[in-house]
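Structure tokens please, single chain.
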Amino acid sequence: MDTCELLAELEDVIAKVVVADAHIPFVIGLWVAMTYLVEQTQVLPLLAIMAPEKRCGKTVTLEVVARLAHRPLIAAHATAAALFRVTEEWAPTILLDEIDSFIRDNEELRGLLNSGHTRSAAGVLRCVGDSNEPRLFCTYAPKALAGIGKLSDTLQDRAIVVPLQRKLRDHEVARPSDLATEAVRLTRRLTRWAADRPSILSDCPLEPPRELDDRAADNWRHLLSIACEACPACLRRAREASLLMSGKQDFDDASTHVLLLRDSREVFEKSGRARLTPTELIKGLMDLEESPWATMKQGNGPSARFLANQLRKYGIQSKGTRLPGVPNTVRAYHRADFEESWSRYLSTDVDGEKYSVASPYEAGLQSVNKGNNEPDPLLPGDHAVDRSQRPTVNGKSAVDGSEFYPSTENIELLQGVRGHSAPLLTDTMRTGAQSGRGDVLEDPEPFDAPPPPTDEDAPPNIY
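Here you go.
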């Protein structure tokens, strides 16, 4: 079964409902495919479907994910006790709606969701029974969250955030119920696809783009492996999406210390100097229009003592310095003392610039190779993708084009996958105790398939 074709069908179905940037349905499709490969994963990123206001389609999007994901369990509220018990008993894909109404002030539930990010740490200890016997409950399961506003820092750090938009009045979208037949067909294909690829994630090991921080790289690693198994075009789109969605650090909720580091870098770059006195640095900070420094202390700005206390946490201190034209020694901050902290705590991309994308994929990304628009070489049957359609950094390619392609070994693997005839599922394989999904797929050529979950182990039927 062709992975590239399967991802394209998933994207088409999701795009009929989701109102968002053009790459979002593709990313949701990758995450849905990952829910069928949980046994191969080491990290399960949250899928955070977030909207700025009501009526942006977050619940509808979550419903579509529920119809496509492996063994879904959707709810509008959950307690921590219920969540780790259903994870232990049913191993479902958990989909929680209206999270802004019950997660924000629930530290226990947030900690539980955080714990399920990595397989090695996915467990909570509880005492059970009259004898208070200690027991370890598993919390490792795919989870999608939908809500209004923003996630807490720790959840957002473990999530692939899908921002939604409210549709225009003349924009027609489908209802999830209209896609029921297509969804059933795709879940059957996804089940067979996963059974045919028991080691897909290890067969296509990929290093995420270096522009991603460690946590973001973990979140995208398995999705990139799935895209690699499909075709170079899908891999390229997945890498571009990872940079657009997770490649730039969000400072809206950053600590004051990180904001100070970021803005001090901008002040030094604007001044073009290697040394600045505390007064000069403070004035430069207050001149940054979109930063909060000018509003501190009733408009007086930060004091030299405040600056010293904040920067001292990073080992940065002013030094006695002789400046040109100044007869006496003065205290000054040296740019060289900031460099290590800038590298450690600030996200930087190519050439230290911020990403700027002119428009989504289908609208055509800003051309970076003018006059060289021939299609990229793809495997047979793939859709050609214009080489000029890539994210840009101030007119330059955000990522070297060669990084979008898998290694020679993986190209040979992809060709091998395309050339072999995958066996069908035997009558022992089912899609998992969901009404309308459990039809037996017969195959005259049986193979050794893993035992399926029983009806008793499955979450309640919701469709």
